[in-house]
Design a protein that fits this description.
The complex is a heterodimer of chains A (308) and B (328). Chain A contains eleven helices and one strand, in the order αααααααααβαα. Chain A folds into two domains: 48 residues; 252 residues, MetI-like (MetI-like fold, Orthogonal Bundle), CATH 1.10.3720. Chain A is mainly α and 308 residues long. Chain A is globular and about 90 Å long. In chain A, α4 crosses α6. Chain B has two domains: 175 residues, 3-Layer(aba) Sandwich (D-Maltodextrin-Binding Protein, domain 2); 134 residues, 3-Layer(aba) Sandwich (D-Maltodextrin-Binding Protein, domain 2), CATH 3.40.190.10. In chain B, β1, α2 and β2 form a beta-alpha-beta unit. Classes of the chains: A mainly alpha (308), B alpha/beta (328). Chains A and B meet through β1 of A and α1, β1, α2, β2 and α8 of B.
Chain lengths: 308, 328
């Protein structure tokens, strides 16, 4: 039988605990708001400045000295092509490395060192990748200041993200699936291709797109390898033009990307260029959001098909 | 068989890659020269109906010369003459070049419109404010001139990587890159514009174009020239040679090897013929017509080398520069 005094003490404890609970909930909400509000304010400010500038011309015009004629054609085409090369290089390499580390690699100190290095790679400033790429891709391999060099540089940059995402999503698959597959006599490759990859593809895809969303906004490494600021032509279309361009000629073309175009416009004296920069920024954020949206959509659809 | 096909495909990529770089005029270098070169490139491509492609980068004057002296670019934009070290690099790689002045940039000293005490400034007063010895010592306006108020002196200027900084320190403190360090520095001139426009006690300097676009927010200070006349920066004053010593010529350097290609010759000729008009449009100061003609003449005679000998120089007339016999 509880005495009234004890009951009071217990109530006091509960009240205090609940107060802490409330305090932490508010603190958490405020912390969340710092991030959300900062983004919202920045985004709205950019949208208010930039959206009225958006028109078809803005997407189909090349850069110009006249702010009202200037457009982002070479920038958005450049960004999409660079991202294409990045994805083609980084996804197979990253996924293969992740699968190897999870399924094939013997658990020994060499594997440990590789794992530590991959985590470290994720923390290296992007400019360092730019310097590496300048020496390796631009000069040593002789790719020049091209879409290929830029795409490969960004691929290196996001490789750790993809490897880590691949490993995480493989680990999320129940051990029983592995064991069941091996118990039926499947080889490691059969297990990987029939079970591991299909089941982890949603998680891998998320990792790929997070990586790509990081790469799309990168400026420093791209400037380091020598992207251009004024470029008023597009990379050659395969098999088009006279004489006809080769299938892969575009990967050696000079280029510019969205963040560089923005950076150049913000440093111009005329206020009208700042509006252009805001509009380009809006398009860039929209591209990133669209990529994230695609990731969420694909993840949802791929998860639906998994039947364990 | 399969691997053979792949090898052939890869070889194909490289061959076509090599073919691509030919119809291109590659330019890189100073961000100060960029607006003019961009305007010229835009008009040139329009005139040639895109048959010739022009690319312009902004690696800075120093970064541009690095690429230029490795033979990667055809033309280098420069907001200062080539330096000794860069001349050696170019000589080592066997790169010869023609130095061509294309316009003036007028460094503009600006103050807040609410500043009532400054009517003009002498170079000596600027030196008192900006010399390295002033660091942490000259912090109030009345330390420069007792007639001025006892108010904090807030200085704004470009960062040490900028050619503007090099020229201003050379002209004011008589030694390039020698400046006090305790001022608000930014490579982005718009940041300097914001800084000076928000603080009554501020003083800053940057290129004329940034002042011209922000006339409502800033006041340009007339600078007393060596003849004792206070001159407000303007396109006319610079062209008349009165805005001294803060007007500087800016250059393009054309590789002699690239000059063998017709499209490069055509582009440079177009630059020297249309550059004056286009420079004015992007708020730079054109050279005198005679100077453009003289530069064109030097170009067609392929007079390689620099008229400066690897040193910065203040207050030199472009007409005299063009008459000098360039050295390599």
């Amino acid at each position: 039988m509880l005495k009234a005094a004890d009951l009071g003490a217990i109530r006091a404890i509960i009240t205090r605990a609940k107060r802490w609970d409330l305090f932490f909930a508010v603190l958490g909400l405020l912390s969340l708001m710092v991030g959300v509000l900062t983004f919202t304010v920045l985004f709205l400010d950019m949208a208010i400045q930039g959206v009225p500038r958006l028109s078809l011309d803005f997407f189909t015009n090349f850069p110009s000295r006249r702010a009202e004629n200037a457009g982002i054609l070479s920038a958005w085409v450049g960004t999409i092509l660079v991202m294409l090369v990045t994805a083609l290089a980084a996804v197979p390499l990253g996924v293969a490395a992740g699968v190897y580390l999870e399924e094939y690699a013997p658990k020994n100190w060499i594997t440990d060192i590789i794992e530590i290095n991959i985590s470290n790679l994720a923390g290296i400033p992007s400019i360092v990748y730019g310097l590496l790429a300048l020496g390796l891709f631009v000069y040593y391999f002789g790719f020049g200041q091209s879409i290929l060099s830029a795409g490969l540089t960004l691929a290196l940059l996001i490789l750790p993200v993809i490897i880590v995402a691949t490993r995480e999503s493989i680990r999320a698959i129940p051990q029983s699936i592995h064991e069941g597959s091996y118990a039926c006599g499947a080889t490691t490759w059969q297990t990987v291709s029939d079970h591991i990859l299909p089941y982890s593809s949603a998680g891998i895809l998320t990792g790929v797109i997070i990586g790509m969303a990081r790469a799309i906004g990168e400026t420093a490494p791209i400037i380091t390898i020598g992207a251009l600021t004024f470029i008023a032509f597009l990379p050659p279309m395969p098999f088009a033009g006279d004489p006809a361009a080769g299938m892969f000629e575009w990967i050696f073309a000079p280029f510019t990307v969205m963040p560089i175009q923005m950076f150049n416009w913000t440093s111009r004296p005329e206020a009208a260029f700042t509006v252009n920069a805001a509009a380009a920024g809006f398009v860039l954020v929209f591209m990133t959001l669209a990529m994230n949206g695609l990731a969420i959509y694909l993840r949802y659809h791929l998860r639906k098909n998994i039947k364990w | 068989m399969k691997s053979l096909k792949i090898a052939a495909a890869i070889a194909g990529i490289f061959v076509s890659g090599a073919a691509f770089s030919q119809s291109l005029v590659k330019i890189d270098g100073s961000s100060t020269v960029f607006p003019i070169t961009e305007a010229v490139a835009e008009e040139f491509q329009k005139m040639k109906k895109n048959a010739v492609k022009v690319t312009v980068g902004i690696s800075g004057t120093g970064g541009g010369f690095k690429k230029f002296c490795r033979g990667e670019t055809d033309i280098s934009d420069a907001s200062r003459p080539i330096l000794k070290k860069e001349m050696e690099d170019c000589a080592k790689a066997g790169i010869k070049y023609v130095e061509l002045p294309v316009a003036f940039d007028a460094l503009t000293v600006v103050i807040n419109p609410k500043n009532t005490w400054i009517k003009q400034l002498t170079v000596a007063e600027l030196k008192t404010m900006w010399e390295p010895g002033a660091q942490a010592k000259v912090t109030k306006w009345n330390q420069v001139n007792p007639a001025w108020p006892d108010a904090p002196l807030k200085l704004f200027g470009p960062g040490a990587d900028s050619g503007t900084f090099d020229y201003f320190t050379e002209a004011v403190n008589h030694k390039a890159k020698s400046s006090r360090g305790d001022f608000t520095a930014s490579e982005d001139d718009n940041v300097l514009v914001q800084g000076v426009s928000r603080d009554t006690n501020a003083l800053g300097y940057f290129g004329f174009a940034y002042y011209d676009e922000n006339k409502g927010k800033l006041k340009a200070v007339p600078i007393v020239n060596p003849k004792g006349k206070a001159v407000t920066p303007s396109i006319e004053a610079v062209m008349a040679g009165e805005y001294e010593p803060l007007a500087r010529p800016i250059f393009i350097y054309v590789s002699a090897k690239s000059m063998e290609r017709a499209e490069i010759r055509e582009f440079v000729e177009f630059y020297l013929k249309q550059g004056g008009k286009l420079a004015k449009e992007v708020k730079y100061v054109p050279l005198a017509d005679a100077d453009y003609k003289h530069a064109l003449d030097n170009f067609s005679k392929k007079k390689t080398g620099t008229a400066f000998g690897g040193e910065a120089e203040v207050g030199v007339k472009v007409a005299d520069l063009l008459k000098r016999n360039p050295k390599e």
